[in-house]
Amino acid sequence: MPLCADEPSAKDLYKRGRKYEKNKDFANAYLMYAQAAAADPRKNEYWQRAEPLRGRAAVASTVLPAAAAASTPQTAAAP
Question: How many CB atoms lie within 10 A of CB 41?
Answer without folding.
Answer: 11
